[in-house]
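Researcher: Here's the sequence for the chain we discussed earlier.
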Amino acid sequence: METATTTSATVAQLSPTTHPRFSGMSHVSLPCRDVEESKIFYAQVMGGELVHTISGFVEFRLEDIVIGLSEQADGGSGRDAEYPHYAFYIDGPNFELMKNLLDRYSVPNHPYRRDATALIYFRDPSGNLFELYCDTGYEGISSLALAPRRGGKPIDFGGLNYQWNSKNAALGPKQEFHRPRFTAFAHASLYCRDFEQAKRFFTKVIGGELIHDVNDGGTGFAEVRVAGVIIGFTDRPGSTTKRGGEYPHYAFFIEPQDFLPMVAWLRQNGVTTSEPWTRDGIKGLLYFRDPAGNLFEMYCPKLKEAATFVRGAKQGGSYEIDFAGLNYEWNG
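Model: Thanks. This is the structure I predict for it:
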């Protein structure tokens, strides 16, 4: 088996002449306060399919993305912050159903409108902030409050936190009702320390297409499209993955032929990365952070080179990821 040192030497010999690309969004993994409570919430309220469970960690498929949940004390969206948050597309009829479902399960929520788009903010029981995004077909849009930047009142993000009675939710009323369905994952909107730096990083290094860029006088907000998914970033109040934390993190798929070139590309562009590693000798994995500290993962489900990668300590190998060591000062 190859060691981390020899793998790094192999990567160092690569000099990508074209920008390697991610191929899609694999998963978003979030911290949760109580895994059993989260299992009820993500099944009954979010409508997810449980696809993986081990002690202290579960994964749910919600339409085209997997949401992972790891039990830990903190690390999610800040109590009063808008960032980070995670958004799903939803159509008009399902928007109304979801609004009613959140009320049914006593989940505080804030429906509002921005121009012709209807939106809802709400949190899971651990405080992770979600947004529903409906840009067509909601007949009740005129009844919704205006967005703050469209003349409406500020959103009370602190008021969306709650103590959820999952026992009552699990019992639930017995009558049948239509459950809403999301359409697709829409975006992850993240906090960044330096707005202009983040634009350079996500376009030049990550390869995103800048599709939205505004500055409201004191803060900025931009969005890039990466591998078909939108990543937003802003220097408005928010938080990143904790310095030594693993959650939240955001994982991209990458094709086998792009895996090692992407490792080389990131390192050539001043990004500190983990070693390429594996859990099983089949999947190729890599962690890295953006300059603000948000944690990302690169994931290739089947990579022949993974047979030579170091194996993670939790899988019986020797490799312990130094998450704090992935923080760096970027000069790009």
